[in-house]
User: Fold these one by one.
Assistant:
Number 1:
Amino acid sequence: MPYRRRVVDDVLDLLFPSLAAIALEGAKGVGKTATATQRAASVLDLSRDRLRAVVAADVERVVDEPSPVLIDEWQLAPAVWDVVKRAVDADATGGRFLLAGSAGVAPGARIHSGAGRIVSLKMRPMSIHERGLCEPTVSLRELLAGAVPPISGRSPVTLAGYTDEILASGFPGIRDLPELAREAQLDSYIARVVSHELPDNGAVVRRPRALRAWLAAYGAATATDASYSKILNAASAGEDEKTARVTVDAYREHLTRVFLLDPIEAWTPVFNPLKRLTKAPKHHLVDPAIAARLVRVGKAGLLRGDGARVAGAAGPWLGALFESLTAQSVRVYASAAGAEVGHLRTMESDREIDLIVEGGDRQVVAIEVKLAGAAADHDVRHLNWLHGQLGDRLADKVVVTTGERAYRRGDGVAVVPLALLGP
C-alpha cells in the first residue's frame, strides 16, 4: 500500500534538516513508524525481543547506525534516550535521529528530559483532511492569523458520511478494511491494550473485565467533563464488587501514558479578564471509533439516536462522537500551526465553547461543533460572548457543522463543514 502523506510530514520537512533528533509520540497504529521510515536510512525496531536484547547489551551501537536512524518503540529500552541525548550534545547536525514511541517512559525509569536536544512531536489518528474526502477550503492556520478570510466551498460529505468516518477510525491500517474485519481489528486493539500494552508498560491489571467496563463508561462520557466518580459509578452499576477509585486512577494514568486516553484540558487564559472557568478536562479517547466499539453502537443505531451517555449529557451520542472526530482533526491542524487546544466552560455552566485554539502569539480561534447543517443564532451566542470578552485577541469564531456549504454569517461567525476545514 502506498504511503499516505500526513500533516506532520510538512512539520518534519521544516524541522528535521535543522534538528538532530525528533521523537514522534502517539498511540500504536497512528502511523508513526510509516512516517518516520520515509526519512530513515536505518531502522532499529525495539519491539523485537532479540534486537532489544542486543541493543540493551550495547546501547551505544545506535550511534553507529547509518543516519538518519529510526529507533522504533524506544521506550522499551529507555537507556537509548540518554545515548541519543549525549550524541546530540557531541554533534548537533540536523537529521540524525528519529525516535518513535507508543508510550511514555515507565514510572521509575530515570532518563534526561531531552530538553534542548530532542524535540517531541505528537501524532494522532488521521484527520479528516488526511483521509482525502475532499479538498479543504478553510485553513486553521489562516484563521489563527487573524485576517478574517472569506469563507466558501461545498462539501460532498453528508451526516451519514461523517458517521461512516467515525466508525471507520483514523488508524491507517484499520480504516480501509471491510466492516467486519475493521470491527475485529478495533476489538483486538482494545483487548491488546488491556492484556499487553498496560502490563508491558508497568501496569498491574488484576481485573481486565472491570477495566474494560471503565473504558466503556469513559467512551460513553466522550466530549463531556463528567466527573471521574460518575464514570466509575456508570462502569460498576449493578456490580457487587466495586473497583477502588485509587485503582481506577492508576489505570487512567497508564491509559494516558499509552495515549489511548486523549483528554482536552480546560483552557486557562493568560493575562485575561475571564474568571471562574472550570479546570476539568473534556474526555476523549484517541479515536471515536474505539468509543463506538466499546459502547457497541453501529451506524444505524447512531443515526436513530442510540447510545447511552454518562451523567445525563444532553443531545444524541452521535453528536458527542462528531465533536470527538472534529477535535481529533483540529488538534492535528493546531499542532502543525504551533497552537494548543483547550475547551472553555464557566463554573456556572452558563457559557461553554467546545474548542479553544490558541496560537503562540496568544491569538485565539473559538470553535463550536454542531451536529447540524447550518448555524442558528442560538448556536453562536457563546462565541459572540467570548468576542466581547477578548476583543482583538479573538482571531476568529467558527461553527463546525455536518452541512454542505461553508459561509460567513453577518455577525462574523464562520460556518464550516468539517470536511472543508484543513491545516
Note: The chain has a mean pLDDT of 92.
Number 2:
Amino acid sequence: MTVTDVMKEIEKDTVFYDESDGGVTFSGGEPFMQPMFLRTLLRLCKEKRIHTAVETCGFVDRDSLMSASPYIDRYFYDLKIMENEKHRKFTRVPNKLILQNLRELARSHDHITIRFPVIPEVNDDDENVSLLGEFVSSLRNVGEVDVLPYHKLGIEKYRSLGIEYRMPKATPPSSEEVARIAERFRSYGLRVKVGG
C-alpha cells in the first residue's frame, strides 16, 4: 500500500476518532522497520489532528525513533528483560539499544507507557521485576506500566505462518502472580494497569 492508500483507510474513521477521543495506533511487527513510511503517515495524521500512538520494541535506529517523535502523541514501549544476556537468549537481540533509546526518548517525550509482558519462568522473577521498576522509575516522563499477562493466542498464528513457536511450554501467569508484580511496580511510584 502507498501512504495515500493508508491515509484513505485512516480517514474513514475520522468521525469515530472525534467522538471517542481516539486515534491511530501503529503497531506490527515493528513499525520502525519502515521508518520513512511511518514518519510520513504520522506527519499526515498530525496535520489532520488525528491522535497518534506507536507500539515499539525499541530495538530500532535511534535517529528514526527520534525524528518521528514530534508526530507521536503516545509511545507504547515494550520492556521484557533487563539483564542483557538473558534478553539475548529469549529475544535473540541484546537490550542495550532498547534501554538507550528509552532513556533518550524519555528526555524529550511526555507520554510513554511501558508494556511489560509477564512470561512465567522467563521474566517474572523478583530480580527482573525490581530492576525494571528501578529503571523505569528513574526516567523522566515515564510513570505508567501496563502489565500484560502472557497468553497462548499467538501459537496458532505462528503455526499458520510456518514459523517455529519457541516457547510452546510457557503458561499464562496466575492472577496472584500478576497482582504481585503490579504491586511491586507500584512500590516504585509507578502507575500500573493490568491488561492491555
Note: The mean pLDDT is 92.
Number 3:
Amino acid sequence: MPRHARSLDGESTPNAAAGLLLRNCRIFDGVKAALTHGDILVRQSEIVEVSPQELDVPHVRLIDAGGRFVMPGLIDAHFHAYATSRSVREIDATSPTLRAHRARPLLESALQRGFTSVRDAAGADAGLARAVDEGLIEGPRIFFGGKALTQTGGHGDMRPGDDSCCCKSLGLTQIVDGADAVRLAAREELRRGAHQIKIFVSGGVVSPTDPIWMDQFSDGEIRAAVEEAATRRAYVLAHAYTSRSIRRAVGLGVRSIEHANLIDLETAKFVAERGAFVDPTLVTYDAMHGSNEGLLPQSLAKLQEVESAGLQAVAYCREAGVRLGFGTDLLGDLHRHQSHEFVLRAKVQDPLDVLRSATSINAELVQRPGRLGTLAAGAVADILIVDGNPLDDISVLERSAESLLLIMKDGHIVKDELSGVLSGR
C-alpha cells in the first residue's frame, strides 16, 4: 500500500502522523545562523511548536535526535522530473506514459537526498504532481509549470537544423511564435494548474541550433507570458545566460532567472534592485563536463564557455545582494549528482547562505514563505536530521545516504535510521 502524504494546500490524509515529538534537536530554522537547542512538536502534517524547553506531550511518538543538526527539508528550484535521459532528443521521442514511469525513480531518489520539494523547470504536469500527492510516488512535492515555452529555433527547440519536422509540441517544451501564441500557451498551462511559466530568452548548451548569445522572444512575447502569469498570481522564470537577456527579461517583469552564468556585476545590481531571483545551476555543467555522453559536438564549446563563468556569476550576484536560489538542472543518470551543488556553491558562498538558498530563499521563490523551508510553528513538517553539521562541512549533505538519519515530508517519515526511538507515551 502506498503511504499517502498531504499536498501543501490540501487536506490531511489518514496515514499522516497524529503526533510526533522530536527531542534534543540542534535546530537550524532555515534563516538564522545561530542554532537553537530544543524540541519540535508535529501534528498531522504541520509543525505545531518549536520550543527551547523540553516539551511534555502525552500520547505522541517520541524520537530523540541526540543533539544532532535538524533542518528544514531541501528545495531544488530547477529540477527536471521528465528529463529521464541525457539526450533531449530521446526524451522527445519517448511516450508520455513511459516518461512518467521513468520519472518515478528520479523523484524517489531526490527525496532520499532530503529534497522534499522541487520546482520542475520544464515538462512536469498536474498528473505527475498528483501521483506524488496521492502517495503513488514517494517523492518530493512538485511545483510544476507544464511544458516550457520556446520560439522556433530557440533553446527549447531541440530539433536538429536539418529536420523538416514542423511539430510544435516536444517532450519538455512547446514551440510558440508571436505574443498571441505565447499568451494562449501560457493560459493553457495555467488552466491546467501550472505554478509558474517557463520561457527561454537566450541560447543554451544542449540545443543544436542557437548560439549562447542569441536573444530569444520579442519584448511583446515576454510581456505576454508575464501578464498571463500575473492573472493567476503565478510568475515567469526565464532561462537566460547573458547580461543583455537577463536585464531585458527582468525589466519586463520576469521574476526568476535560471543559470545567469554570463551575468556582469552591473546587471546583477539591476536584478537585485528589481527584487528578482537568480537560480544558479552549477552542478549540471560540472556533471556534463565530467561525462559528456549524449552531448552534440556543437554543445561542447558552449558548455565550456558557461561552465568557466559560473562561479564568478554567483560571486557577482552575492556582491550585488541578489536573492540566490538553489537549483540543479540535471538530465538522466546525472541526477545522482544533485547534492554536489552544495559543494560547488560553497566555493564562493558561506555554507549558511547556501543552506538558506536551498531552504527559506527557495521557499520565497516558489511562493511558500513560512510554509516551506523553515522550522517554525505553522510550517509544513518537512524535516531532516543530519549526522554532522553542514554549517561546518556542507559536504555532509552530498553524503546523504549516510548523513541523513531521518527524512520527514508532510509529517510522514520516509527514512528513519535513528536508534532509541520510543513510542506510545
Note: Residues 74-365 form a domain with the TIM Barrel fold (CATH 3.20.20.140).
Number 4:
Amino acid sequence: MVSSGEASFPQNPFRELRDLTRYREKLIQQRSSESNRLQKFLEDANIKLSSVVSDINGVSAQDMIKHLIADDMTSKEMAQLAKGALRGKTKALEKSLEGCLTDHHRFILRVTLRMIASYDAAIEKLSMEIDKRMKPFREESGRLQSIPGVKKKTAEKVIAEIGVDMSRFPSDAHIASWAGISPGNNESAGKRRSGRAKPGNAWLKKTLTEAAWAASKTKASYLGARYRRLAARRGKKRAAVAVGHTILIMAYHVIKEQSTYKELGADYFDRLNERHLIKRLTSRIIALGYDVELKKTPLAA
C-alpha cells in the first residue's frame, strides 16, 4: 500500500510545481468569472455580442468592446473590425452592437477589462515559471501528451500532482484509489450499494475530468468511443469520470514504462465484441424483412 505521507507530500520540486499549477488554475477560474461579468454587463446594456462571436475574449470582440467603452465609433464601424471568419457576420455584428451603454456600464466594463488584463499577466508569469520547473520532466510530459485529451497544461498538472516516480504506487489500482477516481465497490449479500468514488485528490480529479471532456470530442480514438459508449448508458457526467479514470491508468503506465500511448482505435469495442455485433445487426436487418448472407471479405479475413 502507498503510505499517506508519501502520496500527500512529494519531493520539493513537485510540491513547488503543484503550488504553481494550483495557483494558476485558481487565477484562470477568477479570470473566467471576470469574463462572465463582462458579458453580463454587456447584455445588461442590450449588447448581444456574445450571440454572434464564439469567444468574447477574442481579438475582434475585445477591439469592439474597447470602442464601445470609448464611444468613438458607430456600430457599423465597429462591425468592420471583425477579423477572420467573423468578416462574414458584419451585419449580425452591427445589430448586436446596437445597445444602450450608459456611463455606469462603461465604468464597470473598463474596470473589468483591467482586471482581466491583470489576470492574463499573472497567469503568463506563472506559466513561464512552470515551464522552467518542467524542464527536467519534458520527456514525461511529452509522453503524457500522446494520450488523447491531454495537452501541455494538463500534463503539467498531472505531473505536479502524482510526480514521475510510480514506484510509490504498487499498481494502477492504487493510484486510482489514492486519486479518488476509482469506482467504489460496496456489495453485501449480493446487493450492490453506492458505487461512488471515494474522496481523493480534488485537483487531480478535476484535471482528469477536463481531459476526459476533451477526449470525448475526438472521433477516431478509443477514449472517444469509450465516452460515447458509457454516456449512452450512464449519462455524460459518469462517463467523463470513467474516462478520467482510464486516462489516469494510461498516464501511470506511460510514465512507469517510459512508453507512449498506443491508440486502440474507435472501433475497438466493435472488434472486441465482433460476434455479438454481427448477431445484433443481422437480427435487426432480418426484422426489417431482408435475407442476410454473411461473407467475410479477403481484406478482413
Note: Residues 1-10, 185-190 have pLDDT under 50 and may be disordered.
